[in-house]
Amino acid sequence: MTNFVYVRGLAAAVLMVASLAACSSSDDSSSNPSGSTSSGLSASFTKTCASCHGAEGRGSGIYPSLPSGLSEADFISTVRNGKGTGMAKYDASVISDADLKSDYAWLSARK
Ligand code: HEC
User: Fold this and answer.
1) Out of 35, 47, 55, 106, which residue is the most buried by the measure of CB atoms under 10 Å away?
2) Cis peptide before 33 (omega within 30 of 0)
3) Any idea what the Cα angle at residue 32 is, between residues 31 and 33, rounded to 5°?
4) What's the predicted TM-score (pTM) here?
């Protein structure tokens, strides 16, 4: 009997987690085939860029949502050269070209 109650509780918990996950995912999951719960952005982005641009690069306030309509080349050159007073420049030791390219692709696909 107690065993039965436990199994029902477990099933309910699993269902709850599944529906929560479905609700909270605002982006098209097909753009994130790795299916990770955190974003598909690079570890470098998460470490260096997310503090201003957000965990999914959506930006807020003075921080633009990325990729902000830029081409991949302009996106990368902005990161390498900085912009205005708020955006520092970051070299490849901070975030590699490969990471920037995959992040650009992810950000472009993000809804
Ligand atoms: C300290 C906060 C901060 C961090 C950290 C930061 N940015 Fe920015 N970023 C800004 C601000 C502010 C702007 C707007 C600058 C402007 O338009 O004058 C900006 C602009 C940009 C732009 C240009 C957008 C446009 O419309 O031209 C890109 C691309 C960008 N950031 C990418 C990144 C990436 C990639 C990283 C991580 C390597 C990063 N940023 C880290 C604050 C930040």
Assistant:
1) 106
2) no
3) 105
4) 0.76
Q: How many CB atoms lie within 10 A of CB 78?
A: 19
Distance between CA atoms of residues 37 and 104, nearest Å: 19
- The CB-side HSE value for 64 (13 A sphere, CA atoms) comes to 13
- Minimum-distance ligand 1 atom for the alpha carbon of 86: 12
Q: Whose CA is nearest to atom 6 of ligand 1?
A: 49
> How high does pLDDT run on average in the chain?
80
CATH code at position 96 = 1.10.760.10
Residue nearest to atom 2 of ligand 1 (CA): 52
For the CA of 67, the nearest atom of ligand 1: 29
Instruction: Render pLDDT for 39-74 as a digit per residue (tens, 0 to 9).
Output: 799 999 999 999 999 999 999 999 999 999 999 999
Tell me if 4 is assigned to some domain: no
The domain of 59 spans 39-109
105 inside domain: yes
CA-angle at 17, arms to 28 and 11, nearest 5°: 135
